[in-house]
Amino acid sequence: MKLYTRTGDGGLTGLLAGGRVSKSDPRVDAYGSVDEANASVGAARAEVAALPATTDRVFLIETLDEVQDGLMRLCADLASGGTYPVRIEEATVASLERRIDAADAGLPELRNFLVPGASRAEAALHVARTVVRRAERRVVALGDSFGPSALRLVFLNRVSDLMFALSRIALRAEGLDPRVWKP
Asked: What span, in angstroms and rounded, lies between the C-alpha atoms of 159 and 103?
């Protein structure tokens, strides 16, 4: 089977649930943004994999793997208009919240804004955070067009929060201090 099919050459793409729509369709934009977020999380994971072998690195990799699974599920959900059996569930969000709480419990209280760029892994996690936020905006723009699912938005919001917490864990794993913004 060839990688290219030529079926999208005219600006249309096929949906998971069937049918063809413009590549500029809001749903395609939304799941494309979620796909971009997944790639960004994967790039951050590659940076994290290069960190020293510690329990922090294990936690980071396991957490990023879970996030990527959720992002794949969300893509399938959006591409199918909510008809695909793989989707975001309350247990998915609850698991992310447990990971955020676990990450945050071992970190000092924040008293300032942080500026990304103290390390490659930390910066990559911040990039992932901002790409997830953009995906969240694209999913919000869909409204209820493809079935109301507050969990889609809650999931993306938690993923973004989690990327922030993980960026701080990455710095701890590297023994580095964050860059504190001093207005």
From this structure: 13
Ordered structural domains, the chain, with CATH? 22-180 (1.20.1200.10)
Q: What's the CA gap between 3 and 6, in Å, rounded?
A: 10
Determine how many CB atoms are found less than 10 A away from the CB of residue 70: 24
d(CA 113, CA 74): 30
Tokens 């960190």 correspond to 51
One-letter amino acid of 173:
A
Residue 118: what are its φ and ψ, rounded to 5°? -75, -25
Q: Which residues pair with 164 in a beta bridge?
A: none
Per-residue model confidence as pLDDT tens digits over 81-139 = 777 777 788 999 999 999 999 999 989 999 999 999 999 999 999 999 999 999 999 99
In whole angstroms, what is the distance from residue 161 CA to residue 143 CA? 22
pLDDT, residue 147, reads: 54
Segment holding 115, helix H or strand E: strand 114-115
Confidence of residue 50 (pLDDT cuts 50, 70, 90): very high
